Amino acid sequence: MASAFFFDAEPLCEPSAPALDACALCARRLGRDSDIFMYMGDTPFCSEDCRDEQMQLDAIRARQAARAAGRRQQQQYASSRAESRHHESRKVSVAT
């Protein structure tokens, strides 16, 4: 006879799925008979408002990350241009 706890254990080396017992934003308990609003595959929310707020937060974070990546790219480009100009200014031509 199989143990009742056999399927309760999480498999080794596998990430666990988030539980559907609380809202991911406000942590409000989700009842078995209540609607659950999902986002990003497996993230539960208690209401459309909480889900929409999370979506807005994610959009803001994505824009901030894109701007930061753009600034880093501009800095790297400016740095490499300055370095190449520095190397070019060292070149000396000798007239014979």
From TrEMBL:
Species this chain originates from: Digitaria exilis
Lineage: Eukaryota, Viridiplantae, Streptophyta, Embryophyta, Tracheophyta
Keyword Ion transport on entry: no
Family: Belongs to the FLZ family.
Pfam families named in the record: zf-FLZ
The entry's keywords: Metal-binding
Protein name (record): FLZ-type domain-containing protein
Region (Disordered): 62-96
Biased composition annotated in UniProt, kind: Low complexity: 62-81
Residue ranges occupied by any FLZ-type domain in the UniProt entry: 18-62
Signal peptide span: none
A single GO molecular function term of this UniProt record: metal ion binding
InterPro entries named among the record's database cross-references: FLZ1/2/3, Zf-FLZ_dom
Zn finger residue spans: FLZ-type: 18-62
